[in-house]
């Protein structure tokens, strides 16, 4: 759309011959070259036939200033004479800003192709935002210039109307850029949010495993968290069982020693009491 806007007035043969900014009935002004004058981006044309014909020599940033566009300023509305610089610079600066906006848009398209392999979403949003800014500023300046000119001609009794197709393309470009800018910003914010979320998950996973490795091992447990080995199938388990059974064997031997000692004590006591029993039997027999 911006290409069509910037190319209007460059030729009289293609579809571009139907695009113009402003048309006014100028037959009452001696300095006007045509009865119906049309202003485009590069010249003035005859609009009597319904299309751009017999256009003047093309000139970049062609100003909308009847005082400069016509051969003389006789009978022109006074506003074009008193505020000549306003119309002159509004139209010319607007065209220049529109050109800058188009250049930035082309840069955006080029960087978008490169960003397929490299993440450049923030940079893309910046370029597109600048393009939107310059295009919007251009649209405001150009619209202001031609609306003021239309009102001036109407107040002077001339029939006028704005180029609906041209302004439709201009403001359509602004709307499309605004939509693209919001979409790009939304995509950029979504990407950053997703990246932060993934980073947070990775950090939590690392902390979890670090805490798990650093946790103290309870007494009597080993660091081996695998499946328990079957009895007698592992060397380490063998020694572990041996260490546990050794005190049991010692306790059994100790108990046997105590039992033997008790038996010997009992035998000794019986032996000690035997003479006494024999003496008692002899005493009874004597009686």
Description of the molecule:
- The structure is a single chain.
- By secondary structure, the chain is mainly alpha-helical.
- It folds into two domains: 2-198, Up-down Bundle (Butyryl-CoA Dehydrogenase, subunit A, domain 3); 238-287.
- The chain has seven helices and four strands.
- It has helices at residues 2-7, 66-69, 78-82, 84-114, 121-155, 164-214, 235-286; strands spanning 22-25, 36-39, 44-46, 160-162.
- The protein has a four-stranded antiparallel sheet with strand order 3-2-1-4, with helices on one face.
- Strand 2 (36-39) and strand 3 (44-46) form a beta hairpin.
- Helix 5 runs antiparallel to helix 6 (164-214).
- It starts with a helix and ends with a helix.
Question: Which characteristics define this entry?
Answer:
287 residues, mainly alpha, 2 domains, elongated
Total strand segments: 4
Helix proportion: 55-70%
CATH topology of the largest domain: Butyryl-CoA Dehydrogenase, subunit A, domain 3
The rounded Rg comes to 53 Å
What is the topology, as strand order, of the major beta sheet?
A: 3-2-1-4
Element order, helices and strands? HEEEHHHHEHH
Structural class call reads mainly alpha
Low-confidence stretches: 234-253, 276-284
Report the span from N to C terminus.
Answer: 153 Å
> What is the molecular shape?
elongated
Give the C-level CATH assignment of the largest domain: Mainly Alpha
Number of helical elements: 7
Largest sheet: 4 strands, antiparallel
Number of domains: 2
How large is the share of residues in beta strands? under 5%
Could you tell me the mean pLDDT? Answer: 78
Looking at the overall shape, the CATH architecture of the largest domain is: Up-down Bundle
